[in-house]
Amino acid sequence: MKGLALVVGAGGIGTQLAKDLNESEKDLDVVLCGRKSEFNPFWELDIEDSQSLLQLKNKISNHPSKLRLVVNATGRLHSDSLQPEKRLQHLDKKNMMESFSINAFSPILLAKAIEEFIPKDCDFNFASISARVGSIGDNQTGGWYSYRAAKSAQNQFFKSLSIEWARRFPKAAITLLHPGTVDTDLSRPFHKFVPEHKLFSKEKSSQFLINIIKNQSPESTGKFIAWDNSEIPW
């Protein structure tokens, strides 16, 4: 029987990941989850809403396949009300909470929601898209206070979870991923600052990430890995 794979986040990277996994991983039933999409199969999900996460649990419970893979591809750098801060005086509590809600709190609450479906008799992978700017050790430029801190918090959440799951689910692996700068709506306002050879298409980034995910194992759980398979300092 096929395993169940959930890609959460129907933006540029998430949708491409779902398409590519669906084509390459014939042993998986791939479902894209998010607010809206034309991808099929698609489950409506608002990762910031607790009731929506409960509905997700019901859908997983009713699916005939074992859960084998979850990829969190949600994230928000900017919106109509949110912009990355260049200096301290730009900080605003409401905007900080918005960034932490989607970039830190929601991914770990997604893990909480799916935890009861983790199999103990076969491998299970949970991958979450973080960002290099969430690395404290790699921070050389400052700025982007809320986004950096929220991604750092996401990393800490999942590092702690990887230790807990290693005890409770010995066949589970958790990976934090940095996809590089990808040509999506999230990064588009900042493309002019990115060298052309470092701006990846969705298709290219997706293949990088899938190759990393496929090579993860319980022995490598709890790592923060870039698109080129290099390990990023916390």
Automatic annotation (TrEMBL):
What this protein is called in its record is: Putative short chain dehydrogenase
Source species taxonomy: Bacteria, Bacillati, Cyanobacteriota, Cyanophyceae, Synechococcales
Tell me which SUPFAM superfamilies the record gives: NAD(P)-binding Rossmann-fold domains
What Pfam families would the database entry show? adh_short (PF00106)
Point out the coiled-coil segments of this chain. none
Which species?
Prochlorococcus marinus str. SB
Q: Name one GO molecular function term.
A: oxidoreductase activity
An example of a Gene Ontology cellular component annotation for this protein is: cytoplasm
List where the protein spans the membrane.
Answer: none
